[in-house]
Amino acid sequence: MKNSHYLHFLLFFLLSFIAFGMVRAQDKDNNFQLANEYYEKGELEKAVQLYDKIIKNPRNAYMIHSRYYDALVRLEYFDKAESYLRKSCKEFPLEALFHVSYGSLLQKLGKKQESDKLYNDFFVRIKKDENALLSSAREFSDLAQYDMAEKMYLEAAKISQQDYTFEIANLYALAGKMDKMIETYINLLDKRPEQINNVQNILQSRVRDDADLDRIEPILMNKVQGGGDQIVFTEMLAWYYLQRKAFYKAFIQAKSVDKRKNQGGYAIQDIGELAHENKNYKDAIRIFEYLVENYKNEPIYWLARNSLLHTKEDQIKNSFPVELEKIKSLVGDYRALLQESGLTHETLASAMNLAMLQAFYLQELDLAFELLDQVIKLSGVPRETLAQAKLNSGDILVLKNEWWDASLLYSQVEKAEKERNLGHLAKLKNAKLSYYRGDFDLAKEHLDILKLATSREIANDAMDLSLLIQDNLGLDTTTLAMEEFAQADLLVFQQRYTEALKQYDNMLQLHEGHSLTDDILWEKANVLHKLGRFQEAVPLLERVLNEFSEDIHGDDANFLLGKIYENNLQNKEKAMDYYKNQLLLFPGSIHNEEARKRFRLLRGDGI
Fold first, then answer.
1. In this predicted model, what pLDDT tens digit does every residue of 199-214 receive, in sequence order?
2. How far is CA 473 from CA 320, 466, 514, 544, in A?
3. How much is the pTM?
4. Count of CB atoms within 10 A of residue 562's CB?
5. How far apart are CA 462 and CA 458, in angstroms?
6. Residue 543 falls within a domain, yes or no?
7. Residue 553 sits in which domain range?
8. C-alpha R_g of the chain
9. What pLDDT, in 10s, does the model give residues 241-256?
10. How many domains does the structure of the chain reveal?
């Protein structure tokens, strides 16, 4: 019986002890949650009072340290903070969390010698413990004590096989020591050339200032000229020149890499394509010519030859006035290419380019349409190529004023490429057909749908034309002026420039003061620019800029004036003035990046 009573008493005692422990744990959790809530609300006094209770058990220090220490410092309870940290450092002699915070506090209190001694003693204590060193490095980094963090990483590297170069370079970046960061990443490639892609990605994301970017070249040049066998630095130099858009310099380095690594010319081809995309036609042509001359028996040959012709075409078409003799020479080159290789999947783009040159510049409409028909009927033509060939055929029909047949082709593409860019482009072309014919309501209906197109260029073109129709019909009781303007637009599309200029002049006389005036001036200036009549274009553009600067063509007129003075009238100072105005007067213009680049080059900033 006594044993039974004893067992009941023991069981009651155990249950009571467990319950008491659970209550205390619950109280601790409640205090912790409430203290954090006070801290988040900025009620630091109340938070500290609760943290004081929780910290009585040293094992809770990890859980509350960051908030507790921050609250004490913000309340300027420095004596209390120092006492807490001194005690924590004794409790946890190998924990960086408390030692780094304590040293930082001592520095705040002007006790640098004590801080240095604390850090040095702690470092001696943990210098053989890699995990403790790494933990310390992270804590020092979080408190912006980057020199100490670097010291920890370097010591950790001595006692292990790990390389902490990336971590150390990151510390330099955080400390704003961009020169040391750059040098550290590049030096890494001496031992670990396989990290080239990582290094390039990191430098590309972190080095944005031109002055910092300039630091890379001399370091790489020293590596390349050092006489070692590290092709990785030649690759890095090619990459660097691409960042500066110095394509020919990148090409020179890429040639060396291509020969050493037997890349078949593809990296060189990529550089040529980038130069082409950036409208650096001169360098792109030199690069593609090198490939055509030196890789005749390589798979890259036909790709390079096509690219060479496409680049020459863009160069000719963007040099005003377009020289007809150069067009004829280019047409001959395209024909020679097709005669040698035949109409294959590799030459489809060249065939379509040839057709459009024949149609728009040589008026060989039937020959052009026939060539595109061969492309369309070729077996296995990719879907997008087929769609583009039909759009091009439709454009030729517009040149022939065969509206119905052109619309039929556009509609086929619109249906087949629904919700894709080419489908949107087809809808835009159909909308323009309605616009040319004077059916403005139907045109605007299509254009308003295209405002949501995924292609920014198509959406912007649709929005611009829709606003043109809306702004110039809503203020007028007749559509006559708008119909005449649309007819002039059609003449420009058909490259009947002399007739278009007469139409614009008639409109300026007959519709003086009309809301279309700025549009007429802008379009007439563009036609004169294409014809190479730059002196005549300038006063029209200046009138747009002076009288209609807040309208849609204000920034366009300013930027075109800059280009004309730079490229055609060779007046560097005036060009720079217009590029500077572009940045000051039109801060949201899409031309600003190009204007800034042109200004810097004219000022002599180099690559």
1. 999 999 999 888 899 9
2. 34, 11, 11, 21
3. 0.82
4. 25
5. 6
6. yes
7. 481-603
8. 36
9. 999 999 999 999 999 9
10. 1
